[in-house]
Amino acid sequence: MCSTDITQPNPELASRIESICVELERADWYSIIPKLWPNAKYIYSIMTGSMMPYLTKLRHYAGELPLVSADYGSTESWIGVNVDPSNPPEKVSFAVIPTFSYFEFIPLFRHKLNYNYQNGNITSTNDDYIEGNPVPLCQVKNGQQYEIVLTTFTGLYRYRLGDVVEVDGFYNKTPKLNFICRRNLILTVNIDKNTEKDLQLVVERGSKILSKGTKRAELVDFTSHANVTKQPGHYVIYWEIKGEIDEKVLDECCRDMDASFVDHGYVVSRRTKSIGPLELCIVEKGTFKKILEYYIGNGAALSQFKTPRCTSNKVLLKILNVCTIKRFYSTAYG
């Protein structure tokens, strides 16, 4: 069937869209979604976890349209639904649906690291969390963090999902969960342990500085890597930015991010110089699109793709390093 049998040219509509786009381009595309789709009532999407850094830009495009966070699910199983869709994405929690799977929860406890001083170096054998014994759905406690464990109807038995969640009250008798971070995404060089959430907060703080100065820019996407090929090891954060920005501002962004990590192991290691200065790499436009194309080309589903926030993948690192156009090193610790 020819495409012309399905759709017909509409010069009047095309002219109207063109005039809207000309107007929107002057306003940096603010409120483009309701302008092009005037009957839209809300925007429904995934806006928690690793997707949260895109909220600012999504709000810019959405204008006054409400943002509704999607249900909480994974490839292995659906987990919960948003019973308060009017809440902003930053305050969304998901009520667990007990019939989706059989759920268990491993209690997670933060603890102080115990440091050993050997040959002038600091070492630690402790993990990022202390784990308690798994508990069923009916025994979770408000305010406690857990890792989710699934037993599904399709054959997964006590599968550790890797998601860290926090109980944020109850809907009737089922717990409501806040997504905190992916547990296995950890930046670590020595005794330091920074999660995806820690990295996200640091990048948010550093990217706010981009609006300073005579030139303005915005963060498009980011990822990170713990480089231990040289001693001392150090963190590398890759930024793709839109617009022009003074190098002095990028220097300040780098320094501010380095100083914003609050993990005690990182702070101690930076002060004793067992972790080197943070490195900020600015990559060329389109770099993260190349990463997307790499994943899609290797069989990943487009609807399931999320930019990895911490990577040691050699192919990804090659793409990032080849596309790096500027490097900055932190002076936060002298």
Automatic annotation (TrEMBL):
InterPro entries: GH3, GH3_C, GH3_M. One of its GO terms (molecular function) is ligase activity. Residues 95-182 form the GH3 middle domain. The keyword Hydrolase does not apply. It holds the Pfam family GH3_M. Keywords: Ligase. The keyword Acetylation does not apply. It comes from the Eukaryota. Residues 198-314 form the GH3 C-terminal domain. Belongs to the IAA-amido conjugating enzyme family. This is Indole-3-acetic acid-amido synthetase GH3.5.
